[in-house]
Design goal:
heterodimer, A: 221 residues, mainly alpha, 9 helices, B: 337 residues, Rossmann fold, six-stranded mixed beta sheet, elongated, binds adenosine-5'-triphosphate, binds magnesium ion
Chain lengths: 221, 337
């Protein structure tokens, strides 16, 4: 009986799982592409650093904080017009990726900024003293030195995205969360509920494990 | 030549102002090793960091080989910094890069080609004695080795000036000696002007030509190491030198002596003259040496003796006058007469 209902679920689960992976992957890529430069900018424009710029720093800092202070559920609904504009639809995993990306960019940017902050200021100063350009310092000092921290940041962001993507079910975003809401919550189907939770737990564990592994390999110190 | 003119650095925060460097002017000659000493917070690092504009002076000028660095734009300043090496107390190497890559970074900043970088880094590592550590990471090196990497990086673009902020303070005495020997070699063989901060007078005595003593952001005394050591004017300077030329006789021993006790300082050539034996032959006094030492500062001897003179008080006074006249460095520590 239990096995039967599980077997019936397999195609649905399979689709939902792939949708989740799809949403998380797209948003993660966008979060890295936009969040990494943003995080670097937040750091290097800070007081006493080589591209110190109070205006840029405070404007960026304000925008980042603003987005981060909006609860994701509200962001999800609030960004529906923007989603429609970009993807042409407001339902499905592609549509959900828009708000996921918007939420993940500032989140990841702050993580990048924090990892950069942990670099010994003296090392950066030594690079300035050597006559290096800001670009060289970013590429050859900041990024290599913060690499393990940034990789941890990617892991954390990915896991947060898995969590957020489950919420995307609320607006019909698809994915495992959507499945859990449709079957488990609305139809009181505990089998589906528990199965989805188990899948999410396994997914998060795997991401954490892989992330830690990669971070260790990247740490040359 | 480095000319620092009326340099002022004020750190202002919302609440208060801290004066780091207070109107300092000095000239550092080409090819000399110039030391800056002073207690913590005296402004040594601030002054040094103003020389390559890591710290932008509040006012004043820093002129290196005729170029006023404070007037340069960012690009020109980077260009100028290629020719000003700097090493630090805590080395500040990039921990995720190998020894080779750390040194290569400086050459990349000068836009050297791959082949040039390869050749020059090997040359530099050879010079600092780390050719075999080429592919090691900083965490695999000892403090002395890390500082050698720092030196190789600083010298990569053939600078005319090397700035050292407490470059040996994190090292043990024997490693300190070897790093100092390397700095001296760099100075003599490559003719690089070295400006170094230290709080160890031993370091000054070993390698500096001239020193500036700093207190509260000001330079309170400046001169050749030999002059400063033999004839310090300021109390602070005296206290610094004291640590190297310690010449106190314990009080309880002094009390036991019955004669007049004098401290005689011989400078340079004098140390080789037979002043004391002349004195003993000329006057009817007996001399008893309690303590004696000859230090070599900048390869010039500085002799210090503590003697007890006994005999007729009148003769002793004449003997003292005689030595004072010839050495210009006699101090009566205890007078019985
Ligand atoms: N970034 C800064 N912001 C505010 N004040 C500073 C800053 N850097 C230095 N100071 C102040 O300037 C003064 C001189 O500091 P500096 O670091 O030059 O001293 P120092 O002689 O190098 O001391 P030490 O031997 O401890 O290194 C101190 O009073 C210090 O508190
Ligand atoms: Mg200092």
């Amino acid at each position: 009986m239990l096995l039967d209902s599980l077997l019936n679920l397999v195609p649905e689960l399979n689709k939902a799982f792939l949708e989740t992976i799809y949403m998380v992957a797209i948003s993660l890529v966008i979060a890295i592409i936009a969040g990494l430069p943003l995080g670097i900018l937040l750091f290097v424009t800070d007081h006493g650093l080589f591209l110190e710029n109070t205006t840029v720093k405070s404007v960026l800092g304000f925008v980042v904080n603003m987005i981060r202070s909006i609860p994701f559920v509200i962001l999800l609904v609030g960004l529906l017009p923007l989603t429609k504009l970009i993807t042409g639809t407001t339902i499905g995993p592609t549509a959900a990726s828009v708000s996921l990306s918007v939420a993940a960019i500032p989140f990841f940017a702050r993580i990048v900024e924090t990892s950069l902050r942990e670099i010994d200021k003296g090392v950066i100063e030594a690079a300035v003293a050597v006559g290096a350009t800001p670009w060289m310092i970013i590429k050859d000092v900041l990024l290599p030195e913060a690499r393990p921290g940034i990789i941890h940041g990617i892991t954390i962001t990915t896991i947060s995205l898995v969590g957020y993507s489950a919420m995307a079910g609320i607006v019909g975003g698809g994915g495992i969360g959507d499945l859990a809401i449709r079957f488990g919550y609305y139809r009181y189907d505990n089998t589906v509920m528990i199965t989805t939770i188990v899948i999410l737990i396994c997914l998060v564990q795997m991401i954490q494990f892989a992330g830690d592994r990669i971070a260790r390999l990247a740490d040359k110190r | 030549m480095i000319e620092v003119k009326n340099l002022v650095k004020v750190y202002s925060s919302k609440k208060n102002k801290v004066i780091g460097v207070d109107n300092v002017s000095l000239t550092i000659k080409n090819g000399e090793i110039f030391g800056i000493v002073g207690y913590s917070g005296a402004g040594k690092s601030t002054l040094l960091r103003c020389i390559n504009l890591l710290e932008r002076p509040t006012s004043g000028q820093v002129i290196i080989d005729g170029v006023d660095l404070t007037t340069l734009n960012e690009k020109e300043l980077r260009q100028a910094r290629l020719k000003i090496g700097m090493i630090f107390q805590h080395f500040h190497l990039v921990s995720s890069k190998t020894v080779f890559e750390n040194v290569a970074f400086a050459l990349k900043a000068a836009k050297k080609s791959k082949e040039e970088i390869e050749k020059r880094v090997n040359e530099l590592l050879e010079m600092v004695g780390l050719a075999d550590k080429r592919d090691a990471y900083p965490s695999q090196l000892s403090g002395g080795q890390k500082q050698r990497v720092g030196i190789a990086r600083a010298l990569a673009n053939e600078p005319t000036v090397l700035l050292c902020d407490e470059a040996t303070s994190a090292l043990d005495p024997s490693t300190t000696k070897s790093i100092l020997a390397l700095l001296k070699k760099i100075n003599r063989e490559l003719g690089i002007t070295i400006v170094l901060i230290t709080h160890e007078m031993e370091v000054v005595k070993d390698i500096c030509d001239r020193i500036a003593v700093m207190q509260d952001g000001k330079v309170i005394e400046l001169g050749t190491v030999y002059d400063i050591f033999t004839n310090p004017k300021e109390e602070l300077t005296k206290s610094f030198i004291h640590s190297v030329l310690q010449f106190e006789i314990p009080d309880h021993l002094l009390k036991k002596r019955t004669g007049t006790i004098v401290k005689i300082q011989f400078k340079g050539e004098m140390a080789e003259e037979a002043i004391v034996s002349d004195m003993l032959q000329t006057f009817k006094v007996k001399g008893n040496i309690l303590h004696g030492k000859i230090e070599y500062i900048q390869d010039m001897p500085l002799g210090i003796f503590i003697m007890e003179l006994t005999g007729d008080p009148h003769e002793i006074k004449r003997a003292i006058d005689y030595i004072s006249l010839r050495t210009n460095g006699l101090e009566v520590i205890k007078n019985v007469a």
